[in-house]
Fold this sequence. Notes:
Elements: H1 2-28, H2 53-80, H3 86-108, H4 113-137, H5 149-172, H6 188-216, H7 219-244, H8 249-271, H9 290-293
Amino acid sequence: MRKKLRQLTLANLVANVGIVITGGAVRLTGSGLGCPTWPKCTEDSYATTPALGVYGAIEFGNRVLSLVVGAIAILTLLAAWRTSHRRLAALVLGGVLLQGLVGGLTVTFDLSPYFVGPHFLISMALIAAAYRLWRSANPNPQLTEPRLRPLAWVVTVASALVLVVGVVVTGSGPHAGDDKAVRTGLDPEMISQLHVDSVFLFAGVTVAMWFAARALGSASVARAVVVLGVVLLSQGAIGFVQYFTGLPVILVGFHLLGACLVWIATLRTLDTTAPRPADLAPAEQHIAKPSELAGV
């Protein structure tokens, strides 16, 4: 049963990343209103119809995948019901249900960026919860460095800031998901510059954390930060190329995947600084006397 729970928590995490990618595909192909109503695809049918064409098929396919994500979340909760992971599994399931509601409102309000943006950010929160559930069900025996916890939180907040500003960039630019979708009206160039600034801030605190990890001799934290740095640099490279090439759909799709990977790498870095339950406060540690060391 424990092995099954570990497998389901991993499937849960992968599914929540996957639905972000397929949701992005819906937007990037202009299929956001392929099913013009919700929860039905049309006024008379829950499924797509030939009249809706490929756009309806893409949007309906994403809705079906949402049901798969929900089913995995339910199975994970059932597997975790008699364990200490039950509350976290229930939180993930609740988040999936909330996402379904926000997705419905997104369609109802014709892909308003004020619903599309929160829809994405809720997915990032869900990925964080699913990651935490997976890690708790798959404990990592390696040493952590709690002294770096405050700096790890700074890195995490910087990463979250990049995501939030990125959402604002998306709401002001093209690829709205449908020609009828409104935009925020903000200057895309100005918001993009703000996004770049937030990325540089994120990169700066990441480098600072690597030096701090090296100074404290924490190999596990240093490795996690290196992975984060590599993913962040790759994501930044895609971002610059897509900006200067007119935001081609394929690169925007990879950028969306990169956002998920950067976020997971950030969570992994934070995880390496978690307090160790086995650690004792200095006042609680027993310092052996010379006589004890001598066996007296």
